[in-house]
C-alpha cells in the first residue's frame, strides 16, 4: 500500500523538540505527525497517509462514541548506540491488535501494514526518538469505528491510526518499589473482554485506580470476578511471584487478563535463567501468607510502559503486607536489565525480537 505524505506546515523547532526530550514525561507530549488509514466494507484498507497530527473529525453518531468499538496497542521505539531506531516484537503487537479486533467485531489490520505504518511515522518523526537512558518513543496504534449510525451492530467503516510521543519513566522517579491497593471492583469477568486491549476495560478501571491513588498507593490490584480471591493483574500490568526455591508463578491466560508481550518475554528470559516458571492461579491469601513466611521473596509487575517494576507492599481492607525488603529484589533487577539490554541493543538479540526501522 502506498502512503501519501502530507508535510507539517509548522513542526516544532529543533530547540523546542530537544527541550521536550530532555524531560518528556509520559503520555503528555506528542510528535508532529500521525498515520491514518481508512477501512470500509467495500474497499477494505485504503487511503493511507502520514499527515500533521491534528484533531479527528467525527460525526456525532460515529459508532465509537456510542458502542465503544475501539482497540489499541502500545509499543516503544528505542534509539540504539549506533543511532539506529528499533522496535521490540512489533509482530506480537500486530497479532494482539487483531485478537482484540476479533473480540470487538472489527476488521484485521494485516501485520505487514501495521508495521509499515509505524515505519512510515518514524521515517518522518525519527528525530523524536530520545537517546537518554530509560527513555523511548511510545507508539500508540489504535482503531476506531467511524460509521455514523445508531443501532447495535458492527460498524462498516473504521479508521486505523498511529500517534507517538517521547516517554520517560512511567512511575515517579525515586520510588524503590510500587505499592498496591486490592480493589473491591473487578476488571473483567469470564466471557468478557478482559483479554482484549480495548478502551472500555481501562475506563472501568479508573474509579478503582483513583481509589488506590487516594489511599496513597501507586497502582490498583484486581482479583477475579467469580470468587474474588485469585490475583489477576494490576490496572495495566501483569504480575509475577518469585519464591525462595527458584520457582516463579504468573497468573494464567484464561481470557480475563491481557496477554502481555512483556509478560511472554519475561517467561522466556526467566526460564533461560534456569528457573521453573509456571502459569497458575495464585490467591491473595496465599500471597500474604507466603510473603509473611519469607517463602515468597519477590513480586514484580510488567508491561510496555512500566517495563519491569518491583512490588514492595500490598494493602487492602484487611491490612497490608510487605514483599521481601519492600524494595527491588535481585531477580527483578536482573531480568529487567536483561530485557532492557535486548530492547536497547546493548546485548545480542538471540530471539529475533528486535526489528530495526530507522
From TrEMBL:
The keyword Transferase is annotated on this UniProt entry: yes
MF GO annotations: branched-chain-amino-acid transaminase activity
UniProt keyword list: Amino-acid biosynthesis, Aminotransferase, Branched-chain amino acid biosynthesis, Pyridoxal phosphate, Transferase
Catalyzed reaction equations: L-leucine + 2-oxoglutarate = 4-methyl-2-oxopentanoate + L-glutamate; L-isoleucine + 2-oxoglutarate = (S)-3-methyl-2-oxopentanoate + L-glutamate; L-valine + 2-oxoglutarate = 3-methyl-2-oxobutanoate + L-glutamate
Keyword Transport: no
Pathway connected to this protein: Amino-acid biosynthesis; L-valine biosynthesis; L-valine from pyruvate: step 4/4; Amino-acid biosynthesis; L-isoleucine biosynthesis; L-isoleucine from 2-oxobutanoate: step 4/4; Amino-acid biosynthesis; L-leucine biosynthesis; L-leucine from 3-methyl-2-oxobutanoate: step 4/4
Modification type N6-(pyridoxal phosphate)lysine: residues: 197
Gene3D superfamilies: 3.30.470.10, D-amino Acid Aminotransferase, subunit A, domain 2
GO BP: any one term: L-valine biosynthetic process
EC number: 2.6.1.42
Annotated family: Belongs to the class-IV pyridoxal-phosphate-dependent aminotransferase family.
Record function comment: Acts on leucine, isoleucine and valine.
Name recorded for this polypeptide: Branched-chain-amino-acid aminotransferase
Native species: Erythrobacter mangrovi
